[in-house]
Amino acid sequence: MTSLQVEKDQSGNAAAADGEGYHRGLGARQIQMIAIGGAIGTGLFLGAGKAISKAGPSLILAYAVAGLVIFFIMRALGELLMYRPVSGSFSEYAREFIGPFAGFVTGWTYWLFWVVTGITEVTAAATYMTYWWNIPQWISALAFTIILYGANLISVKLFGELEFWFSMVKVTAIIGMILICAGILTLGFSDAGDTASVTHLWADGGFFPKGIGGTLMTLQIVMFAFLAVELVGVTAGESKDPEKTLPKAINTVPWRIAVFYVGALIMILSVVPWTEFQPGVSPFVAAFEKMGLGIGAAIVNFVVLTAALSSCNSGMYSTGRMLRDLALNGQGPKLFTRLTASGTPLIGTTFSAALMLVGVWINYQWPGEAFEKVVSFATISGMWAWIMILVCHIRYRVKAERGELPASSFKAPGAPWTSAFALCFIGMVIMMMALDEGARVSLYGAPVWGVILGVAYQVLKGRASRDETVRS
User: Amino acid permease/ SLC12A domain: which residues (predicted)?
Assistant: First the structure.
């Protein structure tokens, strides 16, 4: 599908005009904080605990290398967005540069990613609640799902404002943690002051205490932490000035990763030896407890609770938009095209929130294993969007260089080689997942999901052909 075809009426099975029906209520500061906050969530605050126990200090290097790959992916997405900013984003580009079926698979898979991520985040939030109260995780998960669903019945402008302040809390907390750790290292206050030292980064078994293999096996956890940075692509149809706000947001990726991931881990692992961190426990909360700053641990636990709820809130936002894009292209039920007066895809959001209630059941059945069980599903479905971004970007570059398509105003440096490198890196991560018994279940599920999508697509295609025959 070309950019001209996108302007077709939705009565034909093509997407509506870019941003049609949505309210452009997201300003520059909101887009910036959504982009920053999208990368700061459960993967860093909770998942890093397990990753530290598996890789030790070398996890810092894993985050740095993976962060570079994420930057390549985001610059590829940025070039596509400046070529044509659309709310459907990844699935729209897949339709144009690969084919209708690719768009269908990408749209539904990205929707699945956010549904599963919503389950993951609400699971993490329920885990954090046990820090204060000994209540069943499923009760907290149910309450949070209902509350966040209610929050998504508001206008996009208010959604953006809420996400701005959610993200501000997360950013402030991490910067505060870094400053406190820096103070402990230089001034020696708190219970950890006498033992805090950067030598912890290599003293306990070296920088690679579990070997290079141990570091590689954490890559799926590391990549999961970065999932959602591409959310800025979904906001394209509701941004006030996408040509200016989106490139600025994307260009913040390097320093975001340097400060919030690499910087924070260097500080934490310098103050507290990596051997003292345990899977399933937030390293931020554990670090404050080791320092003897009990109130600090409670504050950080509140912050990470906010981070999880913020990410789940973003998930509910994106699922409704993705379902509407699919419906506008005749690849989903038409009822998902409906918008409220405030421009909210209410039916799609409601449908997605209802499925997120599966997380309540998971927390009821396996309260101690819920997070790990859903992380691998979220990782593989989220990475599919990255793969499509990179493939579409490479194909776009070829056509643009031939003069078949207009050049983007925001070219990715080093492309298309950087996109090819990122594809190879993602392939390596998938191979590592195949070797990990806990993560392998997602690879078993991927073919099943592919078969379901293949059958559904043929059914929709057959129905469209019959409708066309009746009309003629």
Answer: 31-462
Query: pLDDT by residue (tens digit) across 367-385?
Result: 655 555 566 666 788 889 9
Q: Cα–Cα distance between 421 and 454 in angstroms, integer?
A: 29
Q: Do the beta carbons of residue 404 and residue 78 sit within 8 Å?
A: no
DSSP bridge partners of 26? 239
- Kindly state the tokens that stand for 247: 């490139």
Distance of CA 74 to the CA centre of its chain: 12
CB of 54 closer than 8 Å to CB of 210? yes
Q: How many CB atoms lie within 10 A of CB 321?
A: 27
* 330 φ/ψ sector (left φ>0, alpha ψ -120 to 50, else beta): left
Q: What span, in angstroms and rounded, lies between the C-alpha atoms of 329 and 336?
A: 11
The superfamily CATH assigns to domain 26-462 is Amino acid/polyamine transporter I (1.20.1740.10)
Q: Which two tokens stand for residue 310?
A: 């913020």
User: Per this entry, what is the length of the chain?
Assistant: 472
Q: Phi and psi dihedrals of 239, rounded to 5?
A: -90, 140
Residue from 186, 191, 204, 188 nearest 269 by CA:
204
Asked whether 238 and 59 are in contact (CB, 8 A), the reply is: no
Tokens of 31: 């887009």
Q: Where are the domains of the chain?
A: 26-462
* Distance from C-alpha of 100 to C-alpha of 17, rounded to nearest angstrom: 17
Q: At a CB cut-off of 8 Å and minimum separation 6, what does 15 contact?
A: 1, 6, 8, 86, 88, 92, 325, 328, 329
Share of residues in the chain with pLDDT > 70 (%):
84
> How many other CB atoms are found less than 10 A from the CB of residue 309?
21
Residues 6 or more apart whose Cβ sits within 8 Å of residue 40 = 167, 170, 171, 174, 260, 307
Instruction: Please report, as a single letter, which amino acid is at residue 22.
Output: Y
pTM of the model: 0.85
Work out the mean pLDDT of the chain and round it to a whole number: 81
Distance between CA atoms of 153 and 353, rounded to whole angstroms?
Answer: 11
Q: Residue 26 in 3-state DSSP?
A: strand
**E-only strand ranges, 60-214:** none
- What six digits make up the tokens of 287? 């670090």
What φ, ψ does residue 235 adopt, rounded to 5°?
-80, -5
